[in-house]
Amino acid sequence: MNTPAVVLINPKSPHNVGKALRAASIFGARSLVWTGTRVDLSQYERLPREERMKGYASVEFRVDDRPFDLFPTATPVCVELLETAERLTTFTHPVDPVYVFGPEDGSVPPVIRRHCHKFVYIPAYHCLNFSAAVDVVLYDRMAKRQLAGEEPMFPVSEMLHEDRGVSEVLGKIGWEGE
Length: 178
Fold this sequence. Notes:
By secondary structure, the chain is α/β, with parallel strands linked by helices.
């Protein structure tokens, strides 16, 4: 499996795993792994929310209770509300990140945190929804990489990799891109 990656620790909801898969695809993560038995792929024909996008096929995903073994040279980043965590606003993302998120109804267990090299929290006025937290962290990484010139900034016409009618709508209002 490849980085950047997302690891979900014992997620509670298949919908949130599906949403994390979507976020990974949208913001350029290459792998998604989750632990535990609460989301069992054998119970579903597909992850919920997969039908809403085609780009998820670019993300390798699976269940594995030893996720760090899959990324031996990566930098695990625990996303958790800890006094010692860095604020996402000023956080410098590592080159080879594996972002670790705890379950919707708990936190990242200490045994998992011991594997992590960096700790970050999302500054917000209220708690974020689990899948929203994945979106925010992956978007932050992409935006900072673009601003640093490490990733291209394409006009909207080149960012839309799947046609869901948006191109047609933009054309009707006269949008021609940058």
